[in-house]
Amino acid sequence: MNQSLNLILVGRKKRHRRFILVTVLLAVIAFALCCTMLMLGNTIYPVSDVISVLLGEKVRGASFAISNIRLPRMVAGVFAGFAFGVSGYVFQTMLRNPLANPNVIGITAGSSAAAVFCILVLHASNVFVSIASVIGGLATVLIIFLLSKGSSFSIGRLILIGIGIQAMLNAVISYLLIIGKEHDVPTAMRWLSGSLNGAKMENLFPLIIIVLIFAPVIIILGKQLEMLELGEQTATSLGINTDKTRLVLIISSVLIIALATATTGPIAFIAFLSGPIAKRLVGVGFSSIIPAGLVGIILVLASDLVGQFAFEARYPVGVITGILGAPYLILLLIQLNRKEAL
Predict the structure, then answer these.
(1) Can you tell me the distance from the alpha carbon of 342 to that of 326, in angstroms, rounded to the nearest whole number?
(2) Which of 52, 61, 244, 267 is the most buried if burial means most Cβ atoms within 10 Å?
(3) What is the spatial distance between Cα 141 and Cα 250, in angstroms, rounded to a whole number?
């Protein structure tokens, strides 16, 4: 008995060390990418100049570029990447399906449709676009859950309905682009591609505040989230109020991803890729919420650097993440089909 207990404790310590090591490494990589984004551009500034500007000193030629262009772009990438990564992980874990992420089941499309309507039809301000994006995301998730409820909750039914809602909302977005005024369409198209271009600090505060409020809520509920992955009956037997926990997780996740979508546009596949990558790195035994958020940051910042400097033309971050994510989606679908065949 004591030997078995010792083996369990040793295994848990190994998993805990792995979790800490992976989280620290991801944080270091994310920090390095943040520094790189502040240094690189049309002019490469040394670390000393970057630090001086961040401390409030005036550095000729560097202050404007770093404070007004590079810093807002980096902050937008950090908070949006973390929001997409965490939200994707929550939905994939809670619904026990790697396809059940906000991009695939239509939540991001709901936020996008509301934002594009505000941009093209109402010509609204950024603040109003953010509010409409949140309302659109919440309304979409409510409709999906109501339609998929039936006599009993079904994950498969939810995913299918979500995919249908997404297709319908994408059609709405296409219609809005057709009827939109010619000078407004490029703005909407640039936003839809997912981009950090034109980020301004004054427009980032809603996203920063929402992430700082609701991301800790999700992290605190990390253990309950892992129990939900075991199934409804198991989670209930372990003392989890499944309905209340699921409601809090859904609202928190939709809020942060809707604000991220309103700020940067629907950056493709970040919510889809971050969770599986984090789980593969961390392993079992511990919640991968924070690692998933860090992976989201790394994917956004690294993809933005690639889009800006790896090619002759400059591409929005969403184009690069779309290129990375599409093969993974195809591979995942093939794997799921093989499992069903077996």
Answers:
(1) 25
(2) 267
(3) 8
- Cα 127 to chain centroid, rounded: 20
DSSP SS3 for 268: coil
CB 207 within 8 A of CB 55: no
What sign does the CA torsion over 243, 246, 252, 258 have? negative
Region 2-341: CATH code: 1.10.3470.10
Judge whether 284 and 15 are in contact, CB under 8 Å. yes
CA gap 99, 93 in Å, rounded: 10
Q: DSSP for 173-240? A: HHHHHHHS-TTTHHHHHHHHT---TT--HHHHHHHHHHHHHHHHHHHHTHHHHHHHTT-HHHHHHTT-
- In tens digits, the chain (342 residues) has pLDDT values of 566 666 666 666 778 788 899 999 999 999 999 999 999 888 888 888 888 888 888 878 788 888 888 999 999 999 999 999 999 999 888 887 777 777 777 788 888 888 888 888 887 777 787 788 888 888 888 888 888 776 666 677 778 888 888 889 989 988 888 888 777 787 777 778 788 887 888 888 889 999 999 999 999 988 888 888 777 777 777 777 777 888 888 889 888 988 888 888 888 788 888 888 898 888 777 788 999 999 999 999 999 999 888 888 888 888 888 888 778 777 776 776 666 544
Give the Cα separation of 314 and 320 in Å (integer): 11
Q: Specify the residue for token string 């520094």.
A: 35
**Nearest-5° angle of CA 94, CA 301, CA 317?**
90
CA–CA separation, 301 and 317 (whole Å) = 8
Residue 248: how many other CB atoms lie within 10 Å: 17
How many whole angstroms separate alpha carbon 184 and alpha carbon 198?
A: 16
Handedness of CA 231, 236, 238, 243 (dihedral sign): positive
